[in-house]
Structure to design on (473 residues):
């Protein structure tokens, strides 16, 4: 059976990024569990799918990809006619989307995923949260969210007036942070708070939660 | 301050000037806007009505990324210097162009963009008929492969390589000392990435496919700086990587970007 396969872990933020996109597009797929505890992602055969040894990897009928944000973009373009629209037509609109995706990847994710790591994932591995790091990263996140607050005062979603990949890419990390004290940074900014409530209540966002 | 520095230091430290050809002159803020057309030789610039404006400085890796794409596309543009030493990038009017306070920003008519990798993608897309093709030609599957390697540069290569450039070059410019332990650790990570590039370039002439694309172009500014340091050994010791570096840095469009630094 060819078709779409995702090689990853249901708790991984990058894997969820891809799964949410697939749900938005109402696509059938198989999630192949990669055993992270066993280091399966750092060995063959997984390395042939992603030589950087990171989940997820993706396959669509023999066509192989890695890097979650490349995968979601492929899904959005290849299946443009299915499910929900995740893009915005025209090169200027796509440029705004590209900009939003870069901001998520470089400005938001680097800080937000450190906060997720410190407050949640470290605990899974028996390590202690470093509160000094949390404090420092929250200051940085606050500045990014101030920019988002201004943007969302002018636009219903980050790139334009409908939900796109730009909003989608944020969902998995935000879902985790809502379960930590960092939640307050989102709550205390009204436009950001409304946007978070909106994007995390989408059926596809709900589907990836364990 | 240069874009690399932005991500490392919050808030920016007081700057101690060292005399260096890499530093811009005190008259930066009063220098007239520089108009460039890639069809003419670097000096003197021709006076044209350019609809594309780039706000940045030739020293900045992110600005260089955008300039490279514009030259590859033979597009006319105006480079508007931003007085980093005066903190112009952290104040209005620049913040209206990029609220994150980082160069470059680009204006094309009434469109304003920031994030260098989004700008280059826009240039490649909007001006797809002009100059060099910077995306793999073909269907969605082929384009997706370019996106994979664009993400690899942005997520796997650049975070490590730009920190090395920061340690080896930019720290010195601001009166700080290179941390050799940090360099060693970072180089240990970079070699793992370059081993993967070596394998990839044994199967493909350029990173994404057999033609030069944005995936290769995005690497140019940081590689340019690292090739002027001891870290160049990491690239030179891997034959396919070495060949690829030589190819991409020899491109005429890139030479024009490097030339701008000398002006």
């Amino acid at each position: 059976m060819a078709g779409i396969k995702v090689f990853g872990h249901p708790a991984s933020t990058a894997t969820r990024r891809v799964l949410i996109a697939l749900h938005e597009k109402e696509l059938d797929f198989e999630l192949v569990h990669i055993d992270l505890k066993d280091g399966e992602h750092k060995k063959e055969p997984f390395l042939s799918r992603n030589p950087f040894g990171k989940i997820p990897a993706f396959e669509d009928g023999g066509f192989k990809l890695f890097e979650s944000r490349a995968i979601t973009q492929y899904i959005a373009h290849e299946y443009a006619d299915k499910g929900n629209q995740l893009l915005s037509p025209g090169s200027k609109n796509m440029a705004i989307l590209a900009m939003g995706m870069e901001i998520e990847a470089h400005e938001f994710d680097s800080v937000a995923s450190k906060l997720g790591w410190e407050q949640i994932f470290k605990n899974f591995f028996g390590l202690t949260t470093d509160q000094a790091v949390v404090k420092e990263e929250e200051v940085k996140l606050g500045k990014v969210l101030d920019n988002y607050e201004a943007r969302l005062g002018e636009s219903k979603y980050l790139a334009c007036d409908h939900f796109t990949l730009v909003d989608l890419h944020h969902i998995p990390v935000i879902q985790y942070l809502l379960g930590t004290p960092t939640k307050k940074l989102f709550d205390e900014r009204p436009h950001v708070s409304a946007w978070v409530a909106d994007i995390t209540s989408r059926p596809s966002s709900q589907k990836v939660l364990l | 301050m240069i874009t690399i520095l932005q991500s490392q230091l919050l808030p920016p430290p007081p700057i101690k000037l060292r005399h260096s050809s890499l530093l811009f002159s005190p008259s930066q803020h009063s220098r007239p806007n520089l108009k460039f057309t890639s069809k003419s030789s670097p000096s003197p610039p021709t006076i044209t009505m350019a609809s594309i404006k780039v706000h940045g400085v030739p020293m900045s890796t992110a600005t260089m990324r955008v300039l490279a794409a514009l030259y590859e596309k033979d597009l006319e543009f105006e480079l508007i210097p931003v007085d980093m030493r005066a903190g112009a990038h952290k104040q209005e009017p620049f913040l209206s162009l990029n609220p994150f306070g980082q160069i470059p920003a680009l204006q094309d008519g009434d469109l304003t963009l920031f994030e260098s990798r989004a700008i280059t993608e826009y240039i490649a897309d909007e001006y797809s008929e002009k100059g060099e093709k910077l995306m793999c030609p073909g269907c969605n599957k082929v384009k997706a492969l370019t996106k994979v390697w664009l993400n690899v540069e942005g997520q796997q290569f650049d975070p490590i390589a730009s920190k090395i450039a920061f340690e080896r070059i930019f720290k010195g410019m601001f009166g700080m000392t290179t941390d050799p332990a940090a360099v060693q650790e970072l180089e240990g990570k970079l070699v793992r990435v370059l081993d993967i590039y070596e394998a990839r370039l044994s199967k493909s002439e350029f990173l994404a496919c057999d033609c030069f694309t944005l995936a290769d172009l995005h690497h140019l500014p940081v590689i340019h700086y690292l090739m002027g340091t001891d870290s160049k050994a990491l690239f030179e010791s891997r034959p396919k990587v070495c060949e690829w570096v030589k190819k991409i840095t020899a491109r005429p469009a890139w030479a024009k970007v490097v030339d701008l630094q000398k002006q």
